[in-house]
Description:
Elements: H1 14-24, E1 36-44, E2 47-55, E3 59-63, H2 70-88, H3 92-98, E4 108-110, E5 115-118, H4 120-125, H5 132-135, H6 138-149, E6 151-153, E7 160-161, H7 166-174, E8 181-189, H8 196-205, E9 210-213, E10 226-227, E11 240-249, H9 255-268, E12 272-276, E13 284-288, E14 325-326, E15 338-339, H10 350-353, E16 355-356, H11 362-366, H12 370-378, H13 392-410, H14 427-440, E17 447-451, H15 459-474, E18 478-482, H16 486-491, E19 494-499, E20 508-513, H17 515-520, H18 524-530, H19 553-560, E21 575-583, E22 586-594, E23 598-602, H20 609-629, E24 649-651, E25 656-662, H21 675-678, H22 682-690, H23 693-698, E26 722-725, E27 733-736, H24 747-750, H25 759-763, H26 767-773, H27 778-783, H28 785-789, H29 806-820, H30 822-825, E28 833-839, H31 850-862, E29 866-870, E30 882-887, E31 896-901, H32 911-914
Parallel strand pairs: 3-18, 3-19, 5-17, 17-18, 23-29, 23-30, 25-28, 28-29
Antiparallel strand pairs: 1-2, 1-4, 6-7, 6-16, 8-11, 8-12, 9-10, 9-11, 12-13, 14-15, 19-20, 21-22, 21-24, 26-27, 30-31
Helix pairs in contact: 6-13, 7-9, 12-13, 13-14, 14-15
One zinc ion binds at residues 317, 319-320, 324, 340, 342-343.
Amino acid sequence: MARRRSSTVSTPTPRLAADALLRDGTANSRVGRFGWMRLRGVRARNLDGLDLDLPRGCWVAITGPTGAGKTTLARDVLHAEGRRRYIETFPAASRRAMERLERPDADTLEGIPTARFLSATDAISSGRRTSLARVVELRHALATLFSLEGVVVCPDCRVGIRPRSATDLAHLLDQLPEGTRYAIGFPVEVGPNVNRRVALDTLRAEGYTRVVPWDRAKTQFNDRVRTFEDEDLLKQTCREWWVIVDRLIRGNENPARRLDSLSTALARGGGLCRIVSDALPNGAIDARNDWRCPSCARMFLEPTPPLFFETNPLGACPVCRGVGRLDDQGRPDPHGSAVCGTCQGLRLRSESLAVRLEDANLLEWEALTVEQMTERLMRPVTNVAASSGESPRTTSARRRALAILTTLDQLGLGHLPLDRPCRDLARGEATRAILAGAIASGLSGLLWVLDEPSTGLHPCDIRRLSEALGRTRDQGQSLVVVDHDPDLIRAADWVIELGPGSGSEGGRVVFQGTPDQLAQADTPTGRLIANPSATPWAVASQPPTLSNSPPDSARFSRARKSSRPRFERPPDRPWLRLTGARGRNLRGIDISIPLGGLTLVTGVSGAGKRTLVLDVLAWAVAEAIRIQKGPSADANPRPRAHESVGFEAIEGCEHLEGLEVIASGPPIRSPRSCPAGVLGIAGELRRVFAATPLAKQRGYPAAFFGIGSTGGRCSTCKGLGVVTLDLAFLPDVSATCPDCGGKRFRPEILDVTYQNRSIADILDLTIREGFALFKNKPKIQARLRAPLELGLDHLRLGQPLTSLSDGEARRLRLAGFLATSPAAVERSSRGPKSLFLVEEPIWGLHRSEWSRVLDRLRSLPALGHTLVATSSRPELEGWADWVIELGPGAGDRGGRVIFQGPPRVSSTPSRHNADHTPSLPQS
Ligand SMILES: [Zn+2]
Ligand SMILES: [Zn+2]
Ligand SMILES: [Zn+2]
């Protein structure tokens, strides 16, 4: 074992840290070279007077147990200050709003660059209108390409529309052979409703002298040229006259006069000029200088970049204004019940989609995967009109698009279609997409704060993530990465570990220095870095194995060799069998899940885990249960995630009575949601306060102690404690409510106390403090037990859910379920049970905390429930009874079952998992 320091390194000054680096001979030349961010006396949540220095232009990893203050430091201090400085650079109008924007509470904050905050939640919750292409700002590059090189094609006539100026036409005429006779003119309509004599007089007054009765069938026109005196013109022989402006001979013409004639013809002809010559194909060409279809006369729009954004009035569908849906009255409404009939929900106006590049419109381009689009853009854009290759602007737009696509591909997102909505991306995919956008932005000198970017990533994907982070840092960015992954910590330039515990036990710096120094430090992360293959979860809870016969006996016999203790599963226990599962990259796969067991669905990011479990399986089981319970059971069937999602058959649902999906859920509905609500104690707290003597005396009902209804809550901030500042061009920024000072209630409501605490004080308690305070209220206390077991001690009862990290939010949902339906969880071991589908249960957890959560989840199968968890962490395999691995790759290269059977901990593991499965202790 490596030498360990006898004591932890506590808050060394940068100078000391740098000295230590030089002494160790492992000096990272980056650290300190670009200066330091100096934080002194930082006070926020559990950070109490923290002093800290972070090297600029470096990759700084922040780690530590849940609730130690990592996100507070990264988001509420570093990012908040960086954003404040960014807004400060804007003109006076927005600075007025700035004055209300609080500075993080600290003695001094120096050297913090302007900041961007990156969290997958932001991308996913930004709603249905954000697609992958938009997150990485690929649309901008495509819009430029389309505006420069796109061809407008009338969708009805399939005719290309290319406006030609007089100069363009002059160049065209130069191509005619020397000595060719040609004439420039314009058409005039002379249908039955036109008074031909008046028309002739008008033309004569304008100085024209010759006209040709136009008949498309005849190409020889010279013998039919008429002077205005010709009485034949007044007879109804044709519907159109062609008025001659000028007659010229190629080679003898005066260029200025010719240009003038062309311009006159275009102007007088309403944008249409007709050039006639025997040397031309069909004897004549019609050329327009506007965007009208020559065949059906429909007017199109000049392709300019704004035309390709539904967010711009120019590009938006005029009926739904670019939102794609309409409400009952036919008004634009993103949540409306009807798809807009004008744009079919595509949100762009039809003129935008008439622009085609290589015979595909913008949306068809965006439906390509990253790989397919890269391939198409690798070839220079073929523009028929341009004789001399690609213009520099085209080349630059193409290069820019390729740079974004290459970054996406390097981050393992090559399989994704660019129009995939962000809400449908797996968490890891979304994080890496945002990172790709950050890299592609080309900005430098910024501070990027990343919240748990490795969540949901398979170890192979983490290597690529790490490389991308390294490149971003090399571009001159400062990176602050909150993450637990040992590989990401080792690759950083500088590590800050907060701890030692969570909540009031945390908020201190237990280590700062280089990763090499961390490996020598006796801290939880230091031990993990020094010995990464250590068992990730407590050995005490022996992962049981199934003993009855699985569907694939060959694989089972291989696993039988495992010497681990077996969980004696009653032999009559049935299986849940799903056949023909399809959707996205799944093309009809069959899986079996042991009922009453713990199944792990694993595989690389993009292999199809989420689609299989959260889309197909969840939908199939929900439908089956709904049918079993009869039509009255549930009026709102669980919606199918996607049109293509489906299956052939599902068996075994008769043994299930409920389905619980614990996944990165829909965006939090109300900014008023808080842990107290999720855990089902908010109503109980309101009743406790309403029952106090003072509340009774003043006649306050229970509702006055909640922020969901009016009466007790502060009317300025409507119970939020903060007011939102609208800065128009920036994401909304919130500031403490000036009336209640963040207390959220009217002052008279706060007079009412329980155990000397007002409702505001109670909502400010952590779950652990609440658990102690309510020892006389068993109903409340019981509901605070599950979050404690899941490591959520530090959450405050009234903290908005929007402030939670992804991992915290997911575990809180699980805790909420365990707390509010204990009866369902702990029903006797016989009878129907629930199926729990849990997405990535250990996201956002420090490795030292895995066992706590995994043990708690293990208790569900112990009670007879069935648990199916997805995870890209192969280390979890030994925790499960049954493993389904999807792969072998991502996207089209994935979606197949490459392994199904009991854990392969000691038998032949698959290629991907082989490198990363730590050896488990055998007992
Ligand atoms: Zn047309
Ligand atoms: Zn529309
Ligand atoms: Zn207020």
